[in-house]
Design brief:
This protein is α+β, with helices and mostly antiparallel strands. It has helices at 2-31, 71-85, 129-136, 155-161, 180-191, 232-266, 271-286, 317-326, 365-411, and strands at residues 36-42, 47-52, 55-56, 90-96, 99-110, 113-123, 140-144, 150-153, 196-203, 209-219, 223-230, 290-297, 300-307, 330-334, 339-347, 350-359.
Amino acid sequence: MDEEDRSLGEAINELKYKIAELSDFIEIYNAMAQNSIMFTLDHKGNFVSLQKGDSPVHKLEGKSFLSVLDKEDKKKAAENFMKCLEGKKVNTSIKAGEKTFDIVAVPKKRENKVEGVHGIAVEKSSKSSFERIFDAIGEAMAISDLLGNITVANHSLNSLLGYENVKNKNIFDFVDGENVQDVRDDIREALSGERRRREIYVVNREGIKIPVEVEISGIEDEGLLFLMRELTHKKVMENEIKEISEEKDAHINKFKEKISEIYDAANRSSVQDLYDGTIRTIIKLFGVDSCFIGLISYGELNVVAYHGEKPSEDIPVDEVVSVAVSKDGIYEIYGEEENYVYAALTEDKEVVGVIGMKTDKELSDDSRCLLKLLSQNAAKSIVYLNSKYALRRCRETIDRAVEGIYRTTFDGKI
């Protein structure tokens, strides 16, 4: 039973040692989250391994750790090394060249026997823990006194403004002149306990204006916290959207003007004025050098107006009409050198004529829409004016007939 008790006791003691080692290594690996140097020494004080961050340093393996220390720190380091070999954990700081390191070292054990030292060295920073945390924040931030004199600024703000450190400068050294009064007003509100936010411009070291969103809040009547988010990308997007919107508005306005010209062209008092006005509108809207208007009678095309080249007499009227009707009123023929576009003049489902033009490029969707509208309005006006003219002729005929009857009745003569 005694032997069993001893075995159990030894197992418990070994477990305690393992837990203690684990606790020590947790402390070491927590420290490794920073930019640190991890090392292992044998019982003679020589480097077994050395790693800076993720990169091993092989050139020091096998060399004494005392060889990298300043003369005045070697005695202190040797004493701490002996403490580790005695099974104690050591927390200390040493100098190596111009740098100072905080050291955590623990015994390296194997079967309860110390055979070396595990440790980690973290370069000592002149910054406080608060400043290091402040620097780690991605947003540009600064703390100032009540007058805007900067007492702490993080790396992001220094980088934004183009300075190594803006500490001891005033926040208004960087606020664009046009925004100074707004920021002063926001500071007053922030000191009253209200968090303020607005878009302003700050001026960097090179004099370039940078758009930022600044958030200002008070710190227990002792100072101010400034948080800045750069808006350059947002402003670029806003400008692009504005340009697109302006281009769209300009395009719509230009399209409206063209539609007005189409209605003006159709508003004529005579058929010939209608033909001439429509030809001028085609030239202006579509930039063509050659175009015509033809009326269809008994399957034949009668050209009533044209500009540029005189239309060919062998235009396939039936084909143009059938295709134009089936393709929403427009028939396009594109060749290697010449392109022809025909639009049917249709009124009440009857094709009364054709508008034709020769173009050097394919019509855009806008141009097709305008041509369709032009042909519809021209067809209505042609039918209306021709009907008006026919009614007038009919009335003249009736008037002459009535006058003849009158003469026969009263004069006895026809």
